[in-house]
Specification:
This protein is mostly helical and 467 residues long. It has one domain. Helix content is 73%, strand content 0%. The chain is built from 23 helices and no strands. α1 packs antiparallel against α2, α4 runs antiparallel to α17 and α18 packs antiparallel against α19. 50% of the residues are buried. Keywords: Membrane, Transmembrane, Transmembrane helix. One of its GO terms (cellular component) is plasma membrane. It comes from Paraburkholderia eburnea.
């Protein structure tokens, strides 16, 4: 029997299935494509800046927009490289076999949630790019084997990924731990760096991170649609990522019936891979022996580059994996400059300072971290990059923390943890995972709105109560 998918039928179905289904329906009907949304946000911020910002005039706004649009390109490339190198690791044959083996254990929706949340959360805690890719690929592998609602499953993966700004690839935590980093505002103000032991591994960060994963696992189990409402994975409709043979360079090098050419032998030789691994590992060994083990954005990219090269083995295999990763990063390439422009407007016109100062002016040493968290929730919806966000908000909350003698690590991580929360409503980071999974983002965001509400409370209480 053909299913009625008209808007009226969807609305009636939503009413019958409760709040979650209603949220999914609303997001499908109201939310535009993420690129279009970023343009709408640009218009909103521009109008708001002209209306209330202290430097809200047209020349300042235009100059700030241009500066922000092109000033973010270096950071954007770093973020895209994290995603691409994470993709190359996740797509390595040994990792793919592991994902298939894991997926085989998910025989029901409940088991799928119990599997996806811890696996994706650990991957995201290690590296946000790896977490995105593992979440998308694991969701597809499970959905091929089990009848689950695919949007629900992908939303669960994205919810598990949300804890990444509390992990080892947190832009804010890493930048404050990295000597000489342009975003290390603590070092610029005090001459000191903030080690990860005081941020990522501190109880007020680690405890709510674990709690969000555990609580949301069981909430998602309860949220799975009834059997008659499940929209399963449509494998025939997916444009699957092809293996290396789909690449024109790989096809040309196949050389059926001919002896391998010099170019083919060079592409398939492990010597090139070994050279890069030796260079990268040698640099890390030298640097860490002199300065101690130190993770920042660039060393994180380098480590994942080396791991991916080792797992893919040959230069051509790694190059093909990166080419396939590039298909998923196109939307990010498009959106980063737009959000850079938004960030520029907010910073250049003083709009961001107004938002941050509105909270800071009423703060005490005890309340500053939680007020930093609340203001970050608002700013994140407009500047969804943690590093770019810190560049906007950090210059206001950090001096306040120093002058009030409030906890600098807690204040900084309040900004980072709010990123975790707001990302569940801001679709910027969901774009890669839904592109790889092959599903419309609107259905996913209806579920993650619940994650937003739950994690909002958990992180706030942790900032307030956990030592």
């Amino acid at each position: 029997m053909k299913r009625d998918n008209t808007p009226r039928a969807q609305a009636q179905s939503a009413k019958g299935r409760g709040v979650v289904a209603a949220l999914v329906y609303v997001f499908e009907r109201v939310m535009p494509d993420p690129f279009v949304l970023s343009i709408c946000l640009t218009a909103f911020v521009a109008v708001l800046a002209l209306a209330i910002a202290p430097h809200g005039n047209v020349p300042t706004l235009l100059d700030a927009w241009y500066t922000g649009t092109f000033g973010i390109l270096g950071f954007a490339l770093q973020m895209i490289l994290i995603l691409a190198t994470g993709y190359a690791i996740a797509e390595a044959p040994i990792v793919q076999r592991g994902l298939r083996a894991l997926a085989a254990h998910a025989q029901t929706p409940t088991r799928a949630a119990l599997l996806v949340f811890p696996v994706v959360a650990v991957a995201a805690w290690l590296n946000w790019g790896l977490g995105l890719i593992v979440g998308a690929l694991l969701s597809r592998e499970i959905a091929r084997r089990v009848k689950v609602d695919f949007a629900w499953l992908v939303a669960g993966s994205y919810s598990a990924w949300s804890i990444c700004n509390s992990g080892l690839s947190s832009s804010i935590a890493l930048s404050q731990a990295s000597h000489g980093n342009a975003l290390n505002l603590v070092e610029k103000a005090t001459g000191q760096v903030v080690p990860l032991a005081q941020t990522v591994f501190a109880p007020f960060v680690f405890v709510p991170t674990v709690l969000v994963v555990v609580v949301m696992t069981f909430i998602f189990i309860r949220m799975h649609p009834k059997a008659e409402d499940v929209v399963a994975f449509n494998q025939s409709a997916q444009s699957e990522d092809s293996g290396p043979s789909d690449d024109p360079h790989a096809r040309a090098s196949a050389g059926e019936g001919e002896s391998p050419s010099f170019a083919t032998r060079l592409e398939q030789s492990m010597l090139g891979t070994l050279l890069l691994i030796v260079l990268g590992a040698g640099y890390l060994a030298m640097d860490w022996s002199e300065k101690g083990v130190d993770l920042d954005i660039n060393t994180t990219i380098l480590i994942f580059l080396l791991i991916g090269l080792a797992l893919q083995r040959t230069p051509i295999a790694y190059a093909n994996a990166i080419r396939r990763a590039a298909r998923q990063t196109g939307s990010m390439l498009l959106q980063y400059p737009v959000y850079g422009g938004i960030m520029g407007i907010m910073k250049g016109t003083g709009l961001a300072s107004m938002i941050a100062k509105a909270f800071v002016t009423i703060a005490t040493p005890v309340t500053l971290p939680i007020l930093s968290y609340l203001s970050s929730l608002i700013i994140t919806l407009l500047v969804p990059s943690a590093g770019g966000h810190w560049a906007v908000q950090g210059p206001f909350v950090l001096p306040a923390a120093l002058s009030l003698h409030a906890s600098v690590p807690r204040t900084a991580m309040g900004v980072a943890m709010a990123e975790n929360v707001s990302n569940m409503l801001q679709p910027f980071w969901a774009v890669p995972i839904v592109a790889i999974a092959g599903i419309r983002i609107q259905r996913v965001m209806g579920y993650t709105a619940v994650t937003f509400a739950v994690s909002l409370v958990i992180y706030a209480l942790a900032l307030w109560l956990v030592p």
